[in-house]
Amino acid sequence: MLSGTPSADFCARLGKNPLVAGVDEAGRGPLAGPVVAAAVVLCEPVPEGVNDSKKLSAKARAAAETRIRETCAYGIGVVDVETIDQLNIFGATMLAMSLAMERLCEELGESGLHTLIDGNLTPEGRCTRWRWPATPIVGGDGKEACIGAASIIAKEYRDRLMLEAAKRHPHYGWERNKGYGSKEHMEALRVHGPTPFHRRSFAPVAQMELSL
């Protein structure tokens, strides 16, 4: 779990009104790598370029991430492959969101936040560590700037983890597919088998392992 440390100026602008944090995840679908969530409280004005991370080019997304990290408060939660296989990907995603919120609250010194979460479900009642009011918003990463910011932070952080993993396991093309089941990735799985970074609870990986 990592987060930015908000500046004194940022904290002074928070005031006494309830804070709203946007929460989103990256990496639910890949066959390899962790699931990552981010929680963001935006500064004012909203950093330029914030949008749904999927709608941004790699260059625009990286630039927006830099601006968010420099001016906003955020927390990141990472859940590894072993925990994904133990809990299932849904449970792991709920845990990652909870960890991100815990870290954000630590940095702000404030726990009375309301959360806006991308999707139709929230960790409320689904993860024992979750303790914040939550509002789900379908397509929220394109509707609410704070969720869009969280989507950018989560994706950029996870992409960096996959680039590092690709250096240790160069056959799978993770620097290009980020662990998703591309043709290149599936062929490497067939030839080389799964790595410790693969999610063995995911059917394509489990089936490939059985066939070896």
What does this protein look like?
The protein contains eight helices and six strands, in the order E-H-E-E-H-E-H-H-E-E-H-H-H-H. With 212 residues, it is α/β, with parallel strands linked by helices. Strands 1-4-3-2-5-6 form a six-stranded mixed sheet. Helix 3 (81-87) crosses helix 4 (89-108). It is globular and about 55 Å long. It starts with a strand and ends with a helix.
Please specify the SSE layout and strand pairing.
Blueprint: E1 2-3, H1 8-14, E2 19-26, E3 35-41, H2 58-71, E4 73-79, H3 81-87, H4 89-108, E5 113-118, E6 134-137, H5 145-168, H6 174-177, H7 183-192, H8 203-211
Helix pairs in contact: 2-5, 3-4
Provide mean pLDDT, rounded.
91
Structural class: alpha/beta
Distance separating the two termini: 35 Å
Number of helices: 8
Give the SSE order as H and E letters: EHEEHEHHEEHHHH
Task: Report the uncertain regions.
Answer: 1-5
Going across the biggest sheet, name each strand in turn: 1-4-3-2-5-6
Sum up the structure in keywords.
single chain, alpha/beta, six-stranded mixed β-sheet, 8 helices, 45% helix, globular
Short description:
The protein is 45% helix and 16% strand. With 212 residues, it is α/β, with parallel strands linked by helices. Strands 1-4-3-2-5-6 form a six-stranded mixed beta sheet.
